[in-house]
Protein 1
Amino acid sequence: MEDIKGSDGLGDTELRLGLPGTSTATRSAKRALPEGDEESHDELRRTSAAKAQVVGWPPIRSYRKNSFPARKVEAEAEAAAGLYVKVSMDGVPYLRKIDLSVYKGYKELREGLNNMFECFSLGELSRREGGSGSEYAITYEDKDGDLMLVGDVPWEMFISSCKRLRIMKGSEARGLESRQH
Amino acid sequence: MTYFPEEVVEHIFDFLSSHRDRNIVSTVCKAWYRVERLSRRIVFVGNCYAVRPGRVMARFPGMKCLSVKGKPHFADFNLVPHDWGGFALPWIEAAARGCPGLEELRLKRMVVSDESLELLARSFPNFKALVLVSCEGFTTDGLAAIATHCRGLRELDLQENEVEDHGRQWLSCFPDSCTSLESLNFACLKGEVNAGALERLVARCVNLRSLKLNRAISVESLARMLARTPHLVELGTGSFTVEHRAEAYQRLIHAFRKCKSLKSLSGFWDVAPRCLQSIYSICPNLTVLNLSYAPAIQGADLVKLIRHCFKLQKLWVLDCIRDKGLAVVASTCQELQELRVFPSDIYGTGTAAVTEEGLVAISSGCSKLNSLLYFCHQMTNAALITVAKNCPHFTRFRLCILDPGKPDPDTNQPLDEGFGAIVRSCKDLRRLSLSGLLTDKVFLYIGEYAARLEMLSIAFAGDSDKGMVYVLNGCKNLRKLEIRDSPFGDAALLENVGKYETMRSLWMSSCDVTLGGCKALAAKMPRLNVEVINDRDESDEMEENPSDMHKVEKMYVYRTLAGARNDAPEFVEIL
């Protein structure tokens, strides 16, 4: 069975949303992280979801509800409140949250993450493909639940599809490919 | 009355326009029954399961217009499972056999398959008008059949249906020889249509008075069509997406100026606020304006528009009009009879768009107001009392406070007194929907004062069985009662069982009625169908012979001459 612990043994204490055991199961190249992560966005959405639980209330015809760009309403709420996503880092016991909308591109994002996790003295975050000498790879979970490497797609596409970030130990990231056998 | 020749009696009956009156005269004597049934042209069936289709056709062989309603009203809010019933096919089949002279068919909340539409298209040589409201089950293929085979079709009116898109060809199926259309409404279709075919159709139908386009129609196309239909009375604009600098926009303004007969406007799904100026020239003539699908138009632009609409009788808007905007409506639209204010922010993420103030403003300016649907975040007793005083002519009053069970925010009291004032003042009230925090008291008032009430909708209200009993014992003209999430149980249900035969239907969901209570009702009243509708998830548990103490999730009771229906799905148990 695969070992979920990071090399410093703190993997267990990593805080994640999701059912127990799922992080063990999802160690293949294509990951499906648990659904609960949707709530990493706004308080707003959480209370909306709770209120939406009452079936058939408010009494509005489904036709009307469906023809509304409801996504537009949510998107506006999001835009107003920022694009907050959780950031987890391997070996760090707690997560952070950053607002993606304040960054202009990948460079600023890396700098921001560096600053945020500096105190863990974990060295500079890696560039693409976890090249030589790098310790960490920045990955993210996209809308489909897949684990992706940050930096492949245009910035706008990235921020619209990124649901959470994970700073992964370089050794694991590289090791992903070998585990597919 | 037997000394009157039948032709004279028939002629007298011609003056009776309401179904109720005709139903009543047909019970006077056998001769009148006979004359009435042979001369009835317009038949209305309020509940498709109350009577067998064949029986209707047999009784009214001269029928020309048929209206049938299917699912209960709460189906609009997803409270009725998808395949509960309400199929149109048996009606169309029976009409094809018994009344081939049928000219008009109106269906509401029914399941209409493509097969039924195809049968309809082929069975009635004089067919003129098809109106489908809140129906589902058909695709654009069914519409193609109608377009192809209904020669002389005058009206095709699709309102808020769920239609599956199977391509844009259906509209091209209207033959070149079709010039008879007077009304075409396909606003609810999601897919594209063949714009060229539509424009040609519109151009050759010289009697076209009502045209409601769907979102896929471009403004360029709209401008071209308007240029060919200067006599149009009702228009649904489609998405209305246009750059105000574009040539199409100029052509549009020009076309609108020529439409001097335009009285009703709707659509505007994606309109940019700036482009509303294009309709300012028509606004002074408008009697009907529906902006409730246009979330992009905020309060200030709405207000600018409405200031031109002083003849408005019917207005549907979103709550982004805000209380201030409603005050402008109140001062501008003195002829207003119907107002509907829909929520733009369904899950109430905070922006309190309209409150009691807006409603009070409306009531003080629009004394002719008789129909209201108002979604708001809060309401006070004081406001309702004022509204009741200002507008005693309400026939339909539906108030929806978005937060269920919310009290008067000023006094923290229930809204019993406010609604009490409404029913006391509005003696012609036929339809009422309640919301907010309400005790049994409001039902006491309703039972006592709402003598003409025909339809009552209750949600999250009342304290005890007494509430429901007040209504059942009090409202003489009650026809439809629908209740959800309220503490009414078997005692209330069984208190006045005879009442249900005087009503069309009773719906109760998430209340305290038990299976035993439903069984008792069914046993006492054989001419009622008592349907227990189980939630899908629970239906596995239900197989275990549930005890009579088990609370029923959803119950639908209706009077019927047809007995238990044979098309009920597994999760519906008819007792």
Protein 2
Amino acid sequence: MMPIWTKSGEKHAVTLLKVQDCHVLRYVSKEESGGKTAKLLVGGKNASPFSKPESAHEIFREAGVPRKQKVTTFNVTDDAIIKPGTPLYAAHFRPGQFVDVTAKTIGKGFQGVVKRWGFKGQPASHGQTKTHRRPGAISTNQAAKVYRGKKMPGKMGNIYRTSFGLKVWRINTKHDIIYVNGSVPGHTNCLVKVRDSKLPTYKDCNKNPPFPTFFADGDEELPEDLFDEEIFQFTDPSVTFA
Amino acid sequence: CRVSSDGKPPKFQPPPKPVIIDRKTKKEESRFLSPEFIPPRGRKDPLKYYIERKDMIQRRKVFNIPEFYVGSILAVTTANPLASDKSSRFVGICIQRGGTGLGATFVLRNVIEDQGVEICYELYSPRIQAIEVLKLEKRLDENLMYLRDALPEYSTVDVNMKPVPRMDHEEIPVNKVQVRMKPKPWSKRWERPKYNIKGIKFELPEHKMQAAQKWSQPWLEFDMLREYDTSKIEEKIRKELSEELEK
């Protein structure tokens, strides 16, 4: 995470996400998958082919791509279908866009009710016998049962969670890095899924995104760094208020 | 004994001259490398630090961040939308330098009209318009937070102080002042060995100083897992910096 300053002098914290060897693996049509839209399987981050059985390598062999550590699905409309085997780059996103980031949260192991659900526990003194971080009562008398989904101790973390509506401040095309506002679930160097935001406020935010994606062998020559308009560039002199 | 072909005794070969490696003369002076360039130990990708350093160098090309240490007296002018001149100037002693990369900070302390004031500035913030070093010196400690519990005369710096002239080749002077403290209680127990403070004149009774030594952890200096040798990293970064700044 890094600080970033706007032209008016405000500071924002920014997370760096690296797009490492992302390739489109397979196209699944609407009828095949049984969903409402077609799906594209995308894999990211090359991994060793020796730790998985041969049956798992089929998808990668068809696409002509080394084995990927993670395979995710993206729901796409029919006009955004990409041929399997095309690499995906950070330039797919543009500064000023809004993005949802999904990742597995940091695993905390088996945790008690105070840390996991934020229960208040019991006082430290004034006669409490061996009861300081316990859940207390778990149901009422009339219910005569414990409801499903009752908050109790258990394994915490290591589940997929999404941060919605994160602004993209800057893109580095040379190293394929996306600078995303705020924090993102997951530990350092964990695998992360970045999608265009589904929030209704940011529905019309994309002015001219590269559609269906940014192709590296195309004619477009992008500069090494793409900045949002509000970012303070370090080549400018210091901010002064008029 | 070698027999020469001529029958004369073999020519005298003098022994080879001893090679003297002179280690006592000082090596080339170690140039100053700002502490925020050194990446901390961790699992982060070094690419992130490389990119951050590029941004830092960009900023340094446009705006001059001078060399300074904890204990030097600085004057900082920042852009302030609420001030009448739209800029405000603060003079103080640097008590702490923290953070790495673009978020590096330094705290300046001064006593203005009997009120101690500490301001934490970010080195790379675009609102800073000028940083001047009025007096460049080092102190015995790297963290002068104990000045909060010291007598206010040690933290007062004249706001209209003129910069002290200094030659480039002189070594940075170390101010070995022993600071006198206000009566206890202090904000932290500075006599304890974990802070390892050398710049305070402790006027506590002997038994209190001995009792404080109970919290000493003499094994820490031999702990090999805590060692972080930055010499090679520093060399690489110094080379990178000098190349980029010459461009």
Protein 3
Amino acid sequence: MDAHLGCDFLDHPVSTGTTIMAVEFNGGVIIGADSRTSTGSYVANRVTDKLTRITDKIYCCRSGSAADTQAIADIVSYSTYFFENQNNRDALVSEVAAEFRKFCYNYRDTITAGIIVAGYDDVNGGQVYSVPLGGMLIRQSCTIGGSGSSFIYGFVRENYKEQMEKEECVEFVKKAVFHAMFHDGSSGGVCRVGIITKDGIERRVFFAPSVDEKPAMTPASVTVR
Amino acid sequence: MLNNFATLDEERGFSFRNCKRNAQLVANGFIPPKAIKTGTTICGVTYKDGVVLGCDTRTTIGNIIWEKKCEKIYKIQNNIFVAGAGTAADMDGMVKWMRSNMELHRLNTNRKIVPVITLVTTLSHHFFRYGGAISCVFLIGGVDNNGPHLHVVYKHGSKMKLPYATMGSGSYAAMTILETRWKPDMTEQEAKELVADAITSGVVNDLGSGTNVNLCVIRKSSSEKINGYREICGNGKRILDYSIKHGTTGIISETIKKIELDVIEEQIEKMEVE
């Protein structure tokens, strides 16, 4: 396109291609995401942090249009801060999720946002809520989202267990995100994981396994020497 | 201090009333004027004590170079500079908006320095309200009480905080240099050379970027704009004298005719000279 002299990325909106997931475990929730933001076929940011803070113990995982999800997260973060200030108590995860649903549903025709809200509160412990495109709100104990999630539905069905221990759950989330990143072109970079418990959030970053390592899944027809 | 996310300000927003008419004109064969774009290579890099921003100096309309030495790095505050890429008119408008907003913010909050994130947030929220109609992207670099920061804000309103970034048509070329050679905690000289090399790569490999490399260094308590840090394209030096000498064209005959003019009205206006 002559008008842009080769800056193809100016024609495409910035989207968080993405793989995101959140899982309830024994003691809280674990959230995970890849780190790639793309504009068309160009990777605009290879170290994105898609795990966005709403409060110290409530985070959201963003997928869809980067501008839409960042703007909504900013609005919800602000209105939650105001709510906590006015009501003199910490917001519940369900309240934050409902606020997300309010925006995602009312503006469902104009925005592209698939959001997972996850956190810990003193009333109900660790909770995960999914607010996909269209603005539905549903609580699930394990949920995946984003373009990369289509590749790991089978893996998650097979390997998810209720109330896992912390390290076991971190391994599960890490493996799931890496499997999705392997297959999905719009997901890549590193795997960011957040462990939210009553003590706050613990963040970890995992790098992709080296290409020299034997792949985790080998086709049945190939003999491995 | 609720930002007006979803309110429609009838007087100040863009008016799309003529879009239908314009579409019909184009369908009837009218060729619309092209926008002046700043083709561009801009990049920014954080180093140990601050941020270095760099840009080329070419502005284009379609395939024509409109301006050889234009300015793409703008001062917003003493500690915050932005580099812009996109439609020149939108960039200029947004720079005016940023400057007045940040100065008003500083005066209203009685702050000595405005945090960089303040500009990033207000700018990204403003872009989001306009749904991407303001066609420019900005690299925002600055140093505040929390250290040096570099942010990118896209035209739809998304923002990214990065240690190094490039934008514009030459960004692919510049990014190769940054990805190879950026490392944390560089010295100021290393950072300046890295940015200059990245912009040079854009100038040399991209048609939309050219002429010179301008740099801007922002440190904790000072900032410095260096125009023409590196000159890559310049006019060549003429070796021979190409002027046409008197007598080259032979004069055969000469006739002088006086044109008679009637003076109808004489008006003398005094020129204001300070």
Protein 4
Amino acid sequence: MGLLSRKATCNSHGQDSSYFLGWQEYERNPYDEVENPQGIIQMGLAENQLSFDLLESWLAKNPDAASFRRDGQSIFKELALFQDYHGLPAFKNALVDFMSEIRGNKVKFDPSHVVLTAGATSANETLMFCLAEQGDAFLLPTPYYPGFDRDLKWRTGVEIVPIQCTSSNRFQITAAALEEAYQEAQRKNLRVKGVLVTNPSNPLGTTMTRDELDLLVNFITDKEIHLISDEIYSGTVFSSPAFVSIMEVLKDRNLGKTEVWERVHIVYSLSKDLGLPGFRVGAIYSNDPIVVAAATKMSSFGLVSSQTQYLLSAMLSDKKFTKEYIAKNHKRLQKQRSKLVAGLGKAGIGCLESNAGLFCWVDMRHLLSSDTFEAEMELWKRIVYDVKLNISPGSSCHCSEPGWFRVCFANMPEDTLKLAMQRLKSFVGSIAVNDRSHQELKNSRRKFRTKWVFRLSFQSFHDREQDER
Amino acid sequence: MAIEIEKPGVGLSKVAVSETHGEDSPYFAGWKAYDENPYNESSNPSGVIQMGLAENQVSFDLLEKYLEEHSEASSWGKGAPGFRENALFQDYHGLKSFRQAMANFMEQIRGGRARFDPDRIVLTAGATAANELLTFILADPGDALLVPTPYYPGFDRDLRWRTGVKIVPIHCDSSNNFQVTPEAMEAAYRCAESMNLKVRGILITNPSNPLGATIQRTVLEQILDFATNKNIHLVSDEIYSGSTFSSSEFISIAEVLETRGYKDSERVHIVYSLSKDLGLPGFRVGTIYSYNDKVVTTARRMSSFTLISSQTQHLLACMLSNKEFSENYIKTNRERLTRRYDMIINGLKNAGIECLKGNAGLFCWMNLSPLLEEPTRESELALWKVILNEVRLNISPGSSCHCSEPGWFRVCFANMSEQTLEVALERIHKFMEQRRRRN
């Protein structure tokens, strides 16, 4: 029997990381309100389950869209045969309108610049194939979505070099960090082809500031490299500051039709904003016609089902629906996030101030037995196995500081979130009582904590903590 | 051959600018000509008739009838109770009910002569993705796969473009009805060796595209033996397995393995899709069936890049689990394809054109070598242009399928109405008459 390829036998699929191990543990013992109330609550899955009723009611009112009918006529045959990699025109038109609407109509998108792919997973990989050779590198700010290790590197052979971000300035990208990452790539003999950012950020849940975006544009102009902005969470920005898309910055700086304009590419998907990860709807948006042409051909390897394209073209063309959906979805996300933050606060835990996403970036550094990743893993295991919450450790997101965790809030009902917070509170309480090292850690906390990181007010568990804020 | 980009510094990848996507071949040029002047019975009766597209349009009424009678398949039932769960389902294992239905369907197609385990099925967005994925798994960049000629032009892109893997052809010719022989396989292997290429596998399409014929059992055994002796993989693309005109004539590699007690089967992988048999290319439904556990696991993980819409999985799980529907569909579809095939073969015969004896697929392999000025590729392309521009039929020249004998053409018959096929046959008849008179 012949051996398999190097790709098949290497570990770049990333499935041995803790990110996936937490999932496995959850699968073995999943929480269910009725069947398994002692089970593990899944807080490691960035899914949006808060607005399904809106989708369901639209479907009930518009049965034709799922039944292959247009204006009462069956278009089944037409859809069944439609495999054109240029995509269903009606769907691309509706999609760019939706993308515009999400950005407050401050930018307009051209449907002929859109390439449809089976999910953002496919979009990101396809862009790597188009922009980089095996052995080239892309710079990514940390912490970043663990899936990128697989999506960007596995089959493409592209390398990721991290742009280290820290809590000292809320994990924002700095010019120094960008330059340092670039130099690091040089030292490793890697040719840098571009920067990839996720905006709003996963796992931070924050939108990038205009300054950061300007910095990026300057950087890629100077280095003559690409910029990919994965804006998969753009529809989840529930409070200020408003979302600023990279396209808006380019427009405002009058960079349209310049060289840098063609080196900026956006990735989008309906998996987070609409909560439809199963439907595999992703998109690449590029101003470079060669990239669009190449990516379009490559999309043959991951086209969106025409059945699904049609359903969504009907849904997203309904402007009354999209307006209502976007607004209500924001409200619900904001509300749920507040509950999470309040609950964490009751447990004496703070998190990064955030205005987007389906998760919070939670600071548990004060609960670590030491300022190390080993201690973070130790704490994570306790939270998964003892507290029975599956959350994502910062190390799986390549965070440079131990003690941070991504905690999802949009994939469960309010009651489950409440329960999760109660469990966390009990856990933290039990540490205080049992861990002697906790006292030492509290003394050293002054060194590591900064005011930026915590919310201005939250309930403290111990009176003694009040003087440390 | 890569196009050089004059831009300083950045540029795109070699893959992005190369021509390995193959879109400049006549296969695609014919499509363009059709797109610019498409035949329509009423509005454009002198337009180009598309006979270069291997689509199955003969059995849509059966699908539409099913959908009408089973609205729950397309709408998640009244009030959409299953919608939420379906919309969230992105597990790369795929919907269990769908895999089960696919396994059953594949068994039915093979008349129950082979069994399929749903847990060995990996789902991909079409066979295009399945073939590329397998290539990523079975070979490293620079390695080679042996593929019998003539073969589906899309393989040049699917197997080579992003994978960096090479295709070394196993030359077949009309002397024995284009069947693969041990000598031809051996020659291809040696050819690869002489180019310092490591052969990782052999990929066959059975039933064959473009031949429209099933591979005989003895030949399958020889191919399997060859793969075993060289210790390489065997991929059997059985995308047309449900389009055989008679159930008993198609022998799947699965049956050969079954006969051998599955000995040494970890090197065998089957590709399937619903694009041809069910006529649903737009839905992007492909599968890899592997007898190798490591391949199954790896393929599953890789399928993250090419998952099938859960909405579509749900629809097809319902449809294919319905035994009454699937049995009737397979039987009726076969009958209709057979009827079309007979129609085109007789029509061509009356025009004085011979075809390879076929028993499957959505096309026939037509022999126009007597019409060539010279037995060369250039002559073949010249004839192809004449047929495209004067007869106004888009058919696929054998050279685009890497056929080593000039003069053969693939002609599709299932992607149009019977009336349109009649029109096409009339045009061919007229064309042949004109040529005879000139000579």
